[in-house]
Amino acid sequence: MKDLPTQPRDLDGNPVTPGLPMAMLAEITHRCPLACPYCSNPVELTRAAQEMPAEDWARIFREAADLGVLQVHISGGEPGARRDLAQIVASARDAGLYVNLITSGIGITRARLEELDQAGVDHVQLSLQGIRPDMADRISGHPGSWDKKMGFAGWVAEIGFPLTINAVVHRQNMERLPDMIALAETLGARRIEVATVQFHGWADLNRKALMPTREQAAFARQVVNDARTRLRGRLVIDYVPADHHAVYPKACMGGWGSTGLNVGPDGTVLPCHAAGSITWMRFENARDRPLSDIWHLSESFNAFRGTEWMPEPCRSCDRKTLDFGGCRCQAMAIAGDARATDPVCSKSPLHAQVVARAESDAATDTTADTAELIYRRMKKTRELQG
Amino acid sequence: MEPLIRPDDIPYLPRGVRLQQDRVRGIRVLQAPERAMQLDAIGDAILSELDGQRSMAAITGDLAARYNAPPEQIAGDIRDFLTGLIERRMVFLKPFEIDAEDHP
């Protein structure tokens, strides 16, 4: 195993100063009963046999808390696919972390939810794929998902967990956003996260079905603004807009390697859940090295820290410490260069091309019923071997 | 418009919101769903008073006495601070309830 560098330096060798992480995303499994065509997991999914045991997670949570992490988001895949989920949750609480469970609600019974309550889950985030059975089941690729989710939401309320609804919006459902917000209220949620599909990985394979139109993006923004005013003090709304239609890119992770880290099912530590798409980058594993060393010294976490690595037009841009040049994974995917200005930025030379492609994808004439969706599924073992 | 917080209201931290020490950074933080907020000494002092028992008026009186400050000023500080947290659903209010046994 290659030694880590002894000093934190960006990919050009400039010295950088790492801060401390606040949050850790723990993707404890990639297994999931749903098959959403915009899944944020990598296209190459980690198989069950590669998943770390609960003991490794317990050690990593302790290392994370020592490093400064305050909150852990236990996610997947579907975290409920692991039978030892309650043990994993309890070890995170024992480490002093605030535990946020991110779930599809499928496969967690009422009895298990009570067990998770005992184990110390602080907050539950439930994903919804639609506001009615037809859309929810169609997008999730899981017949019956809607009924199970509504049952789960009822148990969450009865037990008394604070609830956030995670709603991913795209061309097939954006018009129903007001109904989704109303549904979150009905379910007693304190928060709703409205996130426009990010076109990486699986979602990129489904661009023609999912890319919102410019009018939809403007509509969603208006709906969110109105609802924030109307529901102040009742429902908190966090919103990730459609960045293909924006003037400036979203701030990548609040700054690469600045506030968060992601640990995958097999212990791979990534600066962001999509970072594996930067194919030349070498990632460390939390089973091999202390998390603190990975955070402070690894090439992957230091690569894009600071602003010295930036090329033009970012280097001379007054927004470089606001959006950090945008999303590195999007730069990799569209420009073929992870250090390029995020091509969704209006200052990027590729911007016109990005907009033209987004508008062409958005003009694809499909409805939720007719759209051909490539569902997120794990390859069968036989296919892998063959 | 009716003020958001009345003197009889009892403010409290709901489930899922925790006041705690950040031992690595040496600061006090308020943890809530997808939020961790750094607190200054005043914010920490106010939130430490929320026991789910005492009303705004009682908390104001106690803090005014402890810091030897005018109650109107303390009341304004508390109201401004808590209003922001109530809007973000990090603090809840229990309305003052008349005990049925005392008022048959």
UniProtKB/TrEMBL annotation, chain A:
The keyword Iron applies. PROSITE patterns: RADICAL_SAM. Keywords: 4Fe-4S, Iron, Iron-sulfur, Metal-binding, Oxidoreductase, PQQ biosynthesis, S-adenosyl-L-methionine. Its cofactor is [4Fe-4S] cluster. GO terms for molecular function: 4 iron, 4 sulfur cluster binding; cyclase activity; iron ion binding; oxidoreductase activity; S-adenosyl-L-methionine binding. It holds the Pfam family Radical_SAM. [4Fe-4S] cluster binds at C32, C36, C39. SMART domains: Elp3. InterPro entries: 4Fe4S-binding_SPASM_dom, Aldolase_TIM, Elp3/MiaA/NifB-like_rSAM, PQQ_synth_PqqE_bac, PqqE-like, Radical_SAM_PqqE_MftC-like, rSAM, rSAM_sf. One of its GO terms (biological process) is pyrroloquinoline quinone biosynthetic process. Residues 18-234 form the Radical SAM core domain. It comes from the Bacteria. Pathway: Cofactor biosynthesis; pyrroloquinoline quinone biosynthesis. Its EC number is 1.21.98.4. Binds 1 [4Fe-4S] cluster. The cluster is coordinated with 3 cysteines and an exchangeable S-adenosyl-L-methionine. It catalyses: [PQQ precursor protein] + S-adenosyl-L-methionine = E-Y cross-linked-[PQQ precursor protein] + 5'-deoxyadenosine + L-methionine + H(+). Belongs to the radical SAM superfamily. PqqE family. Interacts with PqqD. The interaction is necessary for activity of PqqE. Catalyzes the cross-linking of a glutamate residue and a tyrosine residue in the PqqA protein as part of the biosynthesis of pyrroloquinoline quinone (PQQ). HAMAP family: PqqE (MF_00660). This is PqqA peptide cyclase. The gene is pqqE.
TrEMBL record, chain B:
GO terms for molecular function: quinone binding. Keywords: PQQ biosynthesis. Monomer. Interacts with PqqE. This is Pyrroloquinoline quinone biosynthesis peptide chaperone PqqD. InterPro entries: PQQD, PqqD_bac, PqqD_sf. It comes from the Bacteria. One of its GO terms (biological process) is pyrroloquinoline quinone biosynthetic process. Pathway: Cofactor biosynthesis; pyrroloquinoline quinone biosynthesis. It comes from Paracoccus onubensis. The keyword rRNA processing does not apply. The keyword Mitochondrion does not apply. It holds the Pfam family PqqD.
